[in-house]
Design brief:
three-stranded antiparallel sheet, about 70 residues, single chain, alpha+beta
């Protein structure tokens, strides 16, 4: 399964940018993208491991529970 890089804009707008077979390659690319962000940019970049773009987008939109405090 590939590692997808997504740009997430306000309003949870997802844009698939690239995919990589190996995590180190995806991590290196997303670090470069994050370094180029300015204070005015309102989007973030995320890496997600998924079988295809549909699954990746479902995982990114999924509401996750927060971890309990103190544990």
């Amino acid at each position: 399964m590939p590692y997808f890089i997504y740009k997430i804009a306000p309003g949870n707008t997802l844009s698939s940018l690239e995919s990589f077979d190996k995590f180190p390659d995806a991590k290196k690319r997303v670090r470069t993208l994050r370094e180029d962000l300015t204070a005015q940019d309102e989007h973030v970049f995320r890496i997600v491991f998924a079988g295809d773009t549909e699954e990746a987008e479902r995982l990114l939109k999924e509401k996750r529970e927060s971890h309990p405090e103190g544990e």
